[in-house]
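Let us practice reading a record.
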Amino acid sequence: MRLKALPILLIALSVAGCVGSHSHDLLGKTTTTTPSGEIAATHEIFVATTRRKATKEPRQVFDGDRSLTTTFASVEITVPKIHKVGNIERVKGSASPDPAKHFTAHSVTVYDGAPQFTQAVGADIQRRGDRVLVFVHGFNNGFDDGIYRITQIAQDTNYSGTPVLFSWASSGKTTGYIYDKESANAARDDLEATLRMLARTKAKTIDIIAHSMGTWVTMEALRQLAITGDRDLGDKLGYVILASPDIDVDVFKKQMIRYGKPDKPFAILLSDDDKALKLSSLISGDKPRVGDYGDAADLASYGVVVVDLTKAKSGNSLNHAKFADNPILVQLLGNRLQTPAGLASAENDFEQPASNLGRGIGQAVGSVADIIITTPFKVLNVVVEGN
């Protein structure tokens, strides 16, 4: 990189992470008792992580250092009654959260190993309806960020199955892009093994949502599954949704060639105004990333559905997490997930729920979602708005 570009890069790094600046503490110093009427829901989030247990800051639970093995845990977390769709109401700084106002983690269980975790998550899968949602977070995420995001997705989409966070060892720092990239590489075997473990339970469907650099981990794990001849996890793989993929376009094409054209709905959510991916392109030698690639038809030729969110609003200035922080989009996602992937067609992944969502959501949030959907067969423009 030319030296004159360095100051611009350093300034951009200060604002371009997937999350804002805050403490990465998950647990509070104190416990606040809150009336049940002020709590919207309680979620149990199951976790597979390649992070080390936090020793210097134990309230983080797991930090940004890498572990050579996968650790398994579960987190009980509540969502406040005041929660608004698309938001993560979290306490500022290192203060203890108030469950009536904030997402609040109440307890963490660390399992002795994979057998104990498999038994616990398997029982939850049977209880909740035989579906699993695996979320893989992105760059500059602490363990807390991943927990909060999957909780918000589960809450706002009204997902009926078991939520599982795969948390790889992101440093949680805006200056940690290269470290995070290597951590993502190191975690791909662990994600593959976790998916295989979930497939050995009585789950009927395993859906995957991956964000930003987490899409790289996901695509590598899927590629490895394909190499072994089990790319669909014994026909249990459901939706694959890659949001703002931080993957070189040429690399993604090679991954898809190895994986093959999907049999189940496989969607890419991109946005041409994604500022975080503009920075990633700069770091990568001005090479385009999948998440802000301008040729949707080119990507769709590999058998995926491309959902262009450029004209939809975001909850922050980076435009990097529209799929979850835009109230319309996260509920569109929820409507899609209501139908198990085996009953949906790959080419119509987002078409029907977008068309049927109606004007109520747009009116309620005072927003507009203008979405362009490109499949291998056609292009559809969907506008959801209020009166």
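A brief commentary: Confidence is low (pLDDT under 50) at residues 1-17, 346-366.
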